[in-house]
Amino acid sequence: MDFSFTETQNDAAELAATIFRNECTPDRLKAADAGRFDTGLWGSLGSAGLLGLSLPESFGGSGLGLLELCSVLVEAGRLVAPVPLASHLPSALAVAAFGSDDLQQAWLPRAVSGEVVLTAAVAEEREHVPASPTTSASRDGESWSLTGVKAVVPAGTIATAILVPASTASGVGVFLVEAGAAGVTLTPQRISDGGHVARLELDDAPGVLLGSLGDDVYDWLQQRLTLAAAAWELGIVRGALDLTAAYAKTREQFGRPIGTFQAVSQRLADGYIDVLGSDLMLWQAAWRLEEGLDAAMEVASAKLWAADTGHKIAHTTVHVHGGVGIDMDGEAHRYFTTGKLGEFLLGGTTDQARRIGSMLAAEPV
């Protein structure tokens, strides 16, 4: 069996890597640190077709799959690219999969070009992925209005529209809410250097239902958001490990590179093995989702590995860099803070382990 990537998948990753290398220069990254959003880079990704990579060709996309999408996210994470791809791409996919014709025509061409930024607000105050959201939606004729609070909304302060899971009398629905609509309040949350993260408050805010009520659309969305977060985090840990290994080869102490010290070399070797495990879990989950197979366990496992590896390598990066690692203007600090945000996004190791445990407990003996 051939497990290698196809030419198309490799081409997508190479194109993304080239753009990120050319545009994610130290000066550009430092300038973007306050808000983690580079509008010039976002425009370049739109012009190159990467924002519509997995969207239908009828809306200007390329019609490719989740494997190509994940390959781009890994490359973005590798250089900590200041663009909200991990929230925008899955959210646009949901509109393509479940939105009405009018909704698709209104949003997808602009999502492909980069004219708009889409995101999803899943987490609430005490739960990263609530089974029954406290945010509620009520219907008045053909219109829906939403009330509630969402926390840690990625790209919330720069988003044009937000997908919001909410509970109704007939089950959970996913609704598209425009950021500038009446009853919508977005408050910036200062989390690490993710300045675009927001708290979302809804007070009878208008929303448009995607698909039908029930758990299917919500499960579909959260699995792809979680997969995207795992791919982004995999790229971050790869980039952090490369940076730290290079530093260990050149930083000298006691007359020789610190990478020759056994404690340092073993820690980097452990990190390398952890990254390989995360890599394997990610592509298994992406392939199963792409093939339409049950992938709930695999997606949770991929995020568990990504979060665990992210935690370990974030701290390895700081420790091996020493004083340089806590310099807030340095590369190591950028990987640390962004990696920590990715670790907990949509649930860290404990949340994913509980989810996996619940699925195992529900299996028949």
Describe this structure in words.
The protein is built from 11 helices and 9 strands. The protein has helices at residues 7-23, 26-32, 39-47, 66-78, 85-98, 101-113, 215-250, 262-290, 296-321, 331-344, 349-362; strands at residues 118-120, 136-140, 143-153, 161-168, 171-178, 184-188, 198-210, 252-253, 256-257. A hairpin with a 2-residue loop joins strand 2 (136-140) and strand 3. Strands 1, 2, 3, 4, 5, 6 and 7 form a 7-stranded mixed β-sheet that branches. A two-stranded antiparallel sheet has the order 8-9. It folds into 3 domains: 7-117, Acyl-CoA dehydrogenase/oxidase, N-terminal domain (Butyryl-Coa Dehydrogenase, subunit A, domain 1, Orthogonal Bundle); 119-213, Beta Barrel (Butyryl-CoA Dehydrogenase, subunit A, domain 2), CATH 2.40.110; 217-362, Butyryl-CoA Dehydrogenase, subunit A, domain 3, CATH 1.20.140.10. Helix 5 runs antiparallel to helix 7, helix 7 runs antiparallel to helix 10 (331-344) and helix 9 (296-321) packs antiparallel against helix 10 (331-344). Helix content is 53%, strand content 16%. The chain is α+β, with helices and mostly antiparallel strands and 365 residues long.
